[in-house]
Amino acid sequence: MSTATIANQPVVPEEIQSFTVTLIIRRFNPEVDDEPHWQDFDVQLYPTDRVLDALHKIKWEQDGSLTFRRSCAHGICGSDAMRINGRNRLACKTLMKDLDVTKPIYVEAIKGLPLEKDLIVDMEPFFDSFKAVQPFLVAKSKPVDGKERQQTVAQRARFDDTTKCILCAACTSSCPVFWTDGQYFGPAAIVNAHRFIFDSRDENAAVRLDILNDQEGVWRCRTTFNCTDACPRGIQVTQAIAEVKQAIMRGKA
Amino acid sequence: MTSTIEAPRSPYTRSAKKRGLNWEKWGWIYMRVSGVVLIVLIFGHLFVNLMVGEGVSALNFAFVAGKLASPFWQTWDVLMLWLALIHGGNGMRTLVNDYATSRISRGILKVAILLSVVSLIVLGTLVVYTFDACPAGSPADLLPALCSNL
Fold first, then answer.
1. Partner-chain contact B25 A248, CB within 8 Å
2. In a domain, B24, yes or no
3. In this complex, which of B3, B11, B22 lies closest to A30 when CB atoms are compared?
4. Inter-chain contact B22–A180, Cβ cutoff 8 Å?
5. B4:A178 CB<8 A
6. Number of domains in chain A
7. Per residue in B110-129, pLDDT tens?
8. ipTM, 2 decimals?
9. Least packed by Cβ within 10 Å: which of A21, A103, A160, B1?
10. Membrane spanning segments where (chain B) (predicted)?
11. Are A177 and A91 part of one and the same domain?
């Protein structure tokens, strides 16, 4: 049972204040609406709540038709990337205390991909680019005397940053080139190519570099750094793209 | 009733892989290299014209004529002209590639950029190398004052 006494002093937990936050969400229902429109909701929240909690409260208590993707809710599955106050963030990693709650919080779907409903976009063009860079290990040779392809710590560290990608599309859909250019691979695809190009076990770097040397490949990158700013995993996306450019110029990873 | 929102990105397709020289790559390298050279050329140009000696008050017809008579400044100016115009033209081309959605408008805009870049380069180069402050046989009242000292 509760023994909330230390040296005979009852511990009174400090009450955490909740506050009302206004969320303005860009809604679109293809069965009813012709155009997306903004709708506002007032939610009672704590500073430790996340934008995802606010969306849940709306969906569970106010409007069950609000549609959004989320799976793990802990920043790993990459389902709930959305534009929060004009910046691409994971709703499950954006805390209320980090936002200015005196003003309304604007939430909309990520840009550059076809809008399907409310906060859901069609991710197929994004995954098509991802598939196009062969994001898998290609190693035809036999590993030297043994069953494993060994790697030194330094060889592993070379591409460590880009292994963190969770394919949430926050970077790609923050890229102004991707917004307008229908064929640009986008930062996420280049990050995942980088992960294998600089992997010492992989043997297909030349093929991937050739794919990204395309007119719509890495040369479209204008080093805006939107992607680095948007990445919820802290990947240095723009640097990874620059390293791929260098590798193409030098002809080898 | 269902309505579909138009796909936000332009619909044109990735062109088939072409062999040979990769213009996109060399264009990118050109932008980096010419950018660095242009910083030196343009700031050197501004420094010499506006700050050295009497500064901006020394700028007049004779000053420019004097500069264009020297092979050093001829080379400097022509380099600046070519590098800057191709740099700017290539930059405009990437903007057109980004924002012009239809094949026709992209074609028209790119041809317009190419024409203006080429004509400005040709005209500018002609001026730098054929400039004569005191053309022979011109009436004296049309010539600048410095020609009477020749």
1. yes
2. no
3. B3
4. no
5. no
6. 2
7. 999 999 999 999 999 999 99
8. 0.73
9. B1
10. none
11. no
Measured CA to CA, the distance from residue A55 to residue A62 in angstroms comes to 10
Contact B8 A217 (CB under 8 A): no
Q: Residue A37 belongs to what domain range?
A: 19-121
Residues in A touching B2 (Cβ below 8 Å): 30-31
Start-end of H helices in B51-102: 61-69, 71-99
Q: Is residue A32 very low, low, confident or very high in pLDDT (cuts 50, 70, 90)?
A: very high
Q: Look at residues A121, A146, A163 and tell me which one is the last residue of a structural domain.
A: A121
Provide the number of CB pairs (under 8 Å) joining chain A to chain B: 63
Mean pLDDT across the stretch A198-227? Answer: 90
- 3-class state of residue A44 by DSSP: strand
Query: Based on the domain organization, do A137 and A71 belong to the same domain?
Result: no
Asked whether the beta carbons of residue A213 and residue B3 sit closer than 8 angstroms, the reply is no
The domain spanning residue B116 has which CATH number? 1.20.1300.10
B3 contact residues in A (CB cutoff 8 A): 30, 33-34
Question: Is A90 among the domain residues?
Answer: yes
Residue numbers in A near B99 (CB within 8 A):
180
pLDDT of A191-200, one tens digit each?
999 999 999 9
Give the separation between CA A161 and CA A191, rounded to whole angstroms: 9
pLDDT bin (cut points 50, 70, 90) of residue B1 is low
Please give, one letter per residue, the 3-state secondary structure of A59-121: HHHHCCCCCCCCCCCCCCCCCCEEEECCEEEEHHHCEHHHCCCCCCEEEECCCCCCEEECCEE
For B73, residues 6+ apart whose C-beta sits below 8 A from its C-beta are B67
CA distance B18 to A115: 33
Using an 8 Å CB-CB cutoff, list residues of chain B that contact chain A: 1-5, 7-15, 17, 22, 24-25, 27-29, 94, 97-99
Range of the structural domain that residue B41 is part of: 30-132+145-149
Strands A19-27 and A105-108: parallel
- Which of A63, A90, A95 minimizes the C-alpha distance to A77? A90
pLDDT at residue B146 is higher than 80: no
Q: Is residue B13 part of a domain?
A: no
Using 50, 70 and 90 to split pLDDT, how confident is the model at B46?
very high
Q: What is the CATH number of the domain that holds A138?
A: 1.10.1060.10
- Note whether residue B58 is domain-resident: yes
Number of domains in chain B: 1
- Considering the domain boundaries, does residue A7 fall inside one? no
Residue A151 has pLDDT above 70, yes or no: yes
Q: Could you tell me the pLDDT band of residue A145, with boundaries at 50, 70 and 90? A: confident
